[in-house]
Write a structure and sequence with these properties.
This protein is an alpha+beta fold. The protein has 5 domains: 321 residues, 3-Layer(aba) Sandwich (Rossmann fold); 137 residues, Elongation Factor Tu (Ef-tu), domain 3, CATH 2.40.30; 73 residues, Elongation Factor G (Translational Gtpase), domain 3 (Alpha-Beta Plaits), CATH 3.30.70.870; 137 residues, Ribosomal Protein S5, domain 2 (2-Layer Sandwich), CATH 3.30.230.10; 124 residues, Alpha-Beta Plaits, CATH 3.30.70. The chain contains 21 helices and 39 strands. An 8-stranded antiparallel sheet has the order 18-17-23-14-15-22-19-20. Strands 3-4-2-5-6-12-7 form a 7-stranded mixed sheet, sandwiched between helices. The radius of gyration is 29 Å and the shape is globular. The termini are far apart. 46% of the residues are buried. Guanosine-5'-triphosphate binds next to α2.
Length: 833
Amino acid sequence: MSSIWKKSLYRWGIRYLHRSPASFAEIKLNDVGMDKTRNIGIIAHIDAGKTTTTERMLYYSGKTKRIGNVDEGDTVTDYLPAERLRGITIQSAAISIPWNRHKINIIDTPGHADFTFEVIRSLRVLDGAVTILDGVAGVESQTEKVWKQAKSLGIPRIAFVNKMDRPGAGFSRTVKEITGKLRTKVVLCNLPYFESVNGEEPRFVGVVDVLHKKLLKWKPDSNSTGDEIDVINVTEEDQTLHEVFEMITKGRESMVEVLGEYDESIIDSFLECDEDYNKIPVTILNKAIRKATIDNQITPVFCGASFRNIGVQPLMDGITNYLPSPLEANIPEVNISDERIKKKNSANKSVSLVQDKYKGLIINSNPQLTVALAFKVITHANRGVMTFFRVYSGKLYSNTTMINTRTGKKLNVRKLLLMHGDEPEEVRYIGAGNIGVLTGNEDEIVTGDTLVSHGPVKKGFSDLESHMKLLPIEVPPPLFNSGIEPLTAGDEAHMKECIKVLIREDPSLKVHVDEELGQTILGGMGELHLEIVRDRLISDMKAKVRLRDVVVSYKESILKNPFSSASFKNSEGNVTVEVEMDSFEGKASETTFAEEEGAIIFEEDNNIIILGPDSTPPEALAAIEDRRWKSDHSLEDIQDGIIQSSLAALQIGGPLYGLSLHSTVLRIKKWNFPCTESSTNLSEILDVTRRAISKYVEENESSFGVLEPYMETKVYVNSGDLGEVSHDLTQRCKAIITSLEDESNQHDLDNDTDLSHNVYLPPDYTLSKSEAAYDFKLQKVIVCETPLREMIGYLSKLRSMTQGRGTFDMVYIGMRRTTKARLDTIASEFSFM
Ligand SMILES: Nc1nc2c(ncn2[C@@H]2O[C@H](COP(=O)(O)OP(=O)(O)OP(=O)(O)O)[C@@H](O)[C@H]2O)c(=O)[nH]1
């Protein structure tokens, strides 16, 4: 009893029978209320199908007239030439689409680990995320990484198990990995449906909608765009669909069990419905799923095959049904700071800016004020500098004034745009909860800046308003370096201009000039990252430059504390600075200091600078007290100057190879400055600080050593290849193997509780019949720690050892000391860093 079930679909709001280009024309996207807005990101491992799925969403919403394909290089979201050429996403594209009388602002993010920063900055402005998983590969490393980041920001997620059409796809296996590796409870909204025609292998043709008790089948025809869906009512009486009915009943039963833990209304409804799972109304279930998802208690799971145009529309419904509106989202903290230097309070070890925290202030208590976060700055070939921002409160209007609270500078808001991939739409304002673009203001805004405005009202900014700061965006450290030089001296000015543009766009790209060698060094997240930078410089920006080989980013650090300090005085003897150094392991932000109550602690590039509580000269404090302070510079100016100068000195480098210092604690033990004289120059204390640090470094050269980046590496191989691959890892790659595990149960090792225990998991039909399933059972995971340098080009080596079957992934774990033996091998690479 198959029917095209048009009317009922509309009743539950789904518009997926006929794509209607004008479906939302009656409602202007910019006027959709906050409650009907969804800011979502699409996150996943590389190649899981994010762009493919996004393209379908654009098409079904009526936003595009044809489906773009990654493999043909004609997608809307991957619009950079480098993206289309490589078939990967590099920049997060922002696009607004209508669906279900809602507006979905989608950000399609890159999956490659080299572009993790792009994902992090996008996550900061999202209210919810769709995690796309490859049904064959399951939960991959980058998915785990971005999932954790989304979780730490409190962003609710739904999961989409994609590529269900591929041989070896395992829905239930992937769900087990979701619960195991991602540690979340799940509610399975859709189950995969396979059909066998004429005794052929079963083919994935649709999904079982557990909530609505329907079977949704898409046309298997390869020319079908997936607009038409055969919607079949599943009832107990229909014997032909007996199996599907069973799936729905079991699916609902486990849904009720999982949701019942959070929501009593589910249990009440179950009892009212004579304990019949199939009688519980959809509205009750939907409400409970929505609440538990927004509270980050569960993850709703959908499945499909985007490439075959199967299963995308129910996922879109899931977005509007279960992900939060900006009103329900986890609003980032707002800090009010009147300090120009970052302070870290030793008592709570927080690196956030001190002073009062007004959590939730923006939306709730000051709706008139417009507060926005600039999360991305790009330079467009025709439109110039474009700043992507998210408005958290109020409305940002064109032709008004705003203040950048980082610099305290007032800026003009000229043109405002809503972006649809590369297509702009000029608008008069962008309201709270939305993502927009402002043009102009070159060099005035960088990623992470907070922008405050009074909207169209002309008035000045109070002290409080001009010091508001939304939680900043953390920039990961660069792991690879490459020297860059102009082809001729005449090309240098243009090279510098181009680098400036790239750095403004991408804060994970670092530039450093080695004064001694006269060499400019670019630092990036990976080989691909720097390769793309080179392509952009040479092909897009026409810079005449040469980039040297990409090498790992090494650092120097003090390895043993000599318990001495160094002091430096200027020639008149009235400015002095005394310093000492120490080191720490791990992340600066997680390092604790026992006795630093009252100290100013500044952290950058994983170095910590401490202005101890007793470092300020008692004469200076007395001069402030007795109003004898005459200097043109305040105490804060001097402290700020000392910190900035220390930072520069740490960048200049260590005594061994001139590599920048890392994991170093620099203590300013004492400083003095003639504050009762007006004419003293601030630059004097900056110079003395730098010289005191150089003196310390020179005097303690023997205590310094080299650090190199280490990765936690997971290598996936068949058991037959285990011996050769392990041997190669330990011998050639200098790996320390920490464990050897079976792929199939790897996720259960760390955690005893099986979060999938009461979830109904249908049999994975395709698995037992496919070669891939066989491989999966035999797959082993070698978990090890490796120096990053030895992993360059590892994939091709691994492939040749495993007949192309082995894969690996790695995550940066920190800088480690380089052994003497390794130093001899790698020291030649230091010359161009
Ligand atoms: N068989 C099959 N292939 C798919 C499916 N979805 C995507 N693909 C293919 O998988 C490859 C990767 O798809 P993308 O959409 O570029 O994946 P992505 O996650 O956006 O990749 P990055 O942007 O590079 O991170 C392409 O060759 C797609 O055609 C699917 O449902 N089934």
